[in-house]
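Structure first, sequence second, as always.
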């Protein structure tokens, strides 16, 4: 039954792709994709705790039989990627044109099919094909929506960086295949003697290749432009199913294809931790300064991916120093972290589309949307924002707590390099958590609260329900974590030889392998919290009998000002941090004046502020100039002169004959 549902999911996505191309309406394709996601969620819920055997697909790619298998970690990440994808497909894009919606659905089908292949295909060649299909599908989604006028440049920039990463993945797989003589993933597993400089090279290539899609430095700079060129529904897919697939591919390569001993493997682990933590710091700092819902959430996705990559590096480091228990704990924490991130980020991207339907803009500003719309919409958005800000009792708080507890296990290591690396990583992630709290306080407070609409805003019941249900899923993941985490036992056992999830709970308590080390209980907190809240509520009700509530205007220097005119803006909220960390942001401020009737009467002030990209001017811009110069040199090949083309053909014939005659 579960395997039949997976087959039905694939068929529905494939038929939806064809329907989006050939049918005049988008409804059949949208319904088919949503039903496929529902089938996938249902089948994975039935398959999650157990093991799934490898299945032969009955054909070969590059003389290698194609096998398919969804292991325990893949099913976990796929499940929590498909849940928000179901709602995104059902609600559709904010693009108004029917043809745009159909093109977006075609790209969505390609992305989902490619991601499913990344999760389950078991050989190098078919995996690379699925990886490319997933990337191409994402580009089709952005281009098909036509949400932004200048979407071509960001999309090409995204594809260029992803292709550079794909080349890194290709080289890594070629080196591994040449070493082992196998192109199947099972055959790429290292032997006990494998620990050479090649380990470092392959590890860096894997981090470089998969990091391009995860937003590791310097690749995160394609995130805001590409996400900002699409709708929130596209962001749901990118930050959920695609990001989870990329992380799973990286974790499989690092934990299954690299040896778990030797100084070279330790070097890979330390570099991964450093890259992940630094990427998380830079991206959350950049997210805090953004004034667009999609761009802010995109950089937050890169930040969460950076945290996961850093903890994955810690898992490899623990394995190298001979601590399988903490290694398994750190890897499971990565999966928990990305599961909560997928749900919360999907909720807020759908919230962003709701803001757009009301304001016709994704700009973060005080509109008072929550004062005049459904309370369910606000509750779902609040739960998601709390989770991404790591506030209890949401799933983000649970995963961040587990992250720090995993790193603290490194203090028990006898290796100085491991202790120092993990201590610095914990300090860096503490800064990340602090800035993330301010970032989502800004997003929710400035983006959804304040004065604005004086009449009720009619968000669709489907959108309000989707945001509310996903928000409840964020809370449900945290409350049910003592039971959810047990489903990852088989994967922990197969990778590290220990069943870490069984030591990560003590009845209703969550513990990091030992209850004597630390503990929390979001399950008990969600029960005790409302009961404790009755105390201040009681004081408030009693005080209302003696003191009358009085509403007065906001103080503005003794003058009566319109609350909308003096409302907090995104720039005002984040300007202090921008000034303090000016060495990171490199902020610029431009003020222009337009005059009327002479130089003494100012008609209009035009203020513009920007944050300078870190890698763009010094890395990507020189590369673009180099490519353009090379293109100018090679443009002679398009001269149109027949004699020149005949000369080229003649030289090729001579070259071929020379190779055939003299090559032995």
């Amino acid at each position: 039954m579960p395997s039949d549902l997976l087959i039905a999911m694939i068929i529905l996505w494939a038929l939806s792709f064809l329907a989006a191309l050939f049918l005049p309406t988008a409804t059949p394709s949208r319904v088919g994709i949503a039903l496929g996601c529902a089938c996938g969620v249902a089948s994975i819920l039935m398959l999650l705790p157990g093991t799934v055997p490898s299945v032969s697909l009955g054909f070969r790619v590059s003389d290698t039989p194609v096998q398919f298998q969804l292991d325990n970690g893949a099913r976990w990440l796929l499940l929590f990627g498909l849940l928000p994808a179901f709602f995104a497909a059902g609600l559709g894009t904010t693009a108004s044109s029917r043809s745009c919606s159909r093109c977006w659905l075609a790209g969505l089908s390609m992305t989902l099919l490619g991601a499913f292949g990344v999760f389950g295909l078991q050989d190098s060649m078919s995996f690379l094909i699925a990886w490319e299909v997933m990337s191409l599908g994402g580009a089709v989604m952005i281009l098909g929506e036509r949400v932004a006028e200048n979407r071509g440049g960001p999309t090409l920039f995204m594809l260029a960086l992803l292709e550079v990463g794909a080349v890194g993945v290709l080289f890594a797989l070629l080196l591994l295949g040449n070493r082992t003589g196998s192109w199947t993933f099972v055959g790429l597993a290292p032997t006990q003697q494998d620990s050479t400089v090649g380990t470092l090279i392959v590890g860096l290539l894997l981090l470089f290749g998969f990091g391009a899609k995860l937003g590791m430095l310097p690749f995160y700079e394609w995130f805001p432009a590409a996400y900002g060129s699409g709708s929130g529904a596209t962001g749901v897919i990118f930050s959920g199913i695609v990001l989870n697939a990329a992380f799973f591919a990286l974790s499989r390569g690092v934990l299954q294809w690299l040896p778990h001993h030797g100084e070279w493997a330790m070097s890979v682990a330390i570099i991964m931790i450093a890259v992940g933590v630094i990427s998380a710091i830079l991206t959350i700092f950049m997210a805090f300064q953004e004034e667009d819902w999609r761009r802010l959430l995109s950089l937050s996705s890169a930040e969460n991916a950076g945290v996961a990559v850093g903890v994955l590096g810690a898992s490899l480091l623990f394995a190298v120093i001979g601590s399988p228990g903490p290694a398994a704990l750190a890897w499971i924490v990565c999966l928990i972290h990305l599961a909560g991130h997928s749900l919360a980020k999907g909720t807020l991207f759908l919230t962003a589309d709701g803001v757009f339907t009301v304001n016709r803009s994704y700009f973060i500003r005080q509109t008072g949307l929550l004062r005049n719309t459904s309370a369910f919409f606000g509750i779902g958005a609040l739960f998601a924002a709390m989770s991404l800000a790591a506030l209890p009792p949401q799933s983000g708080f649970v995963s961040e707590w587990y992250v720090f507890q995993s790193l603290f296990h490194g203090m028990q290591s006898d290796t100085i390099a491991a202790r120092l690396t993990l201590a610095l990583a914990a300090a860096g992630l503490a800064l990340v958590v602090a800035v993330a709290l301010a970032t989502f306080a800004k997003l929710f407070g400035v983006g959804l609260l304040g004065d604005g609409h004086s009449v009720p805003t009619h968000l669709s019941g489907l959108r309000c329900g989707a945001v509310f249900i996903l928000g409840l899923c964020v809370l449900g993941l945290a409350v049910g974590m003592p039971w959810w985490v047990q489903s990852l036992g088989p994967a922990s056992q197969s990778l590290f030889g220990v069943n870490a999830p069984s030591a990560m709970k003590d009845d209703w308590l969550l513990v990091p392998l030992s209850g004597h080390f630390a503990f929390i209980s979001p399950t008990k907190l969600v029960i005790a919290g409302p009961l404790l809240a009755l105390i201040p509520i009681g004081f408030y009700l009693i005080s209302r009998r003696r003191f009358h509530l009085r509403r007065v205007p906001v103080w503005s220097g003794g003058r009566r000002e319109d609350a909308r005119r003096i409302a907090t803006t995104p720039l005002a909220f984040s300007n202090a941090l921008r000034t303090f960390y000016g060495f990171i942001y490199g902020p610029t401020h431009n003020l222009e004046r337009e005059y009327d009737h002479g130089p003494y009467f100012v008609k209009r002030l035009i203020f513009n502020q920007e944050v300078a990209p870190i890698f763009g001017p010094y890395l990507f811009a020189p590369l673009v100039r180099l490519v353009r110069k090379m293109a100018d040199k090679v443009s002679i090949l398009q001269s149109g002169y027949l004699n020149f083309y005949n000369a080229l053909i003649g030289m090729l014939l001579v070259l071929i004959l020379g190779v055939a005659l003299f090559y032995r």
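Margin note: The chain has a mean pLDDT of 88.
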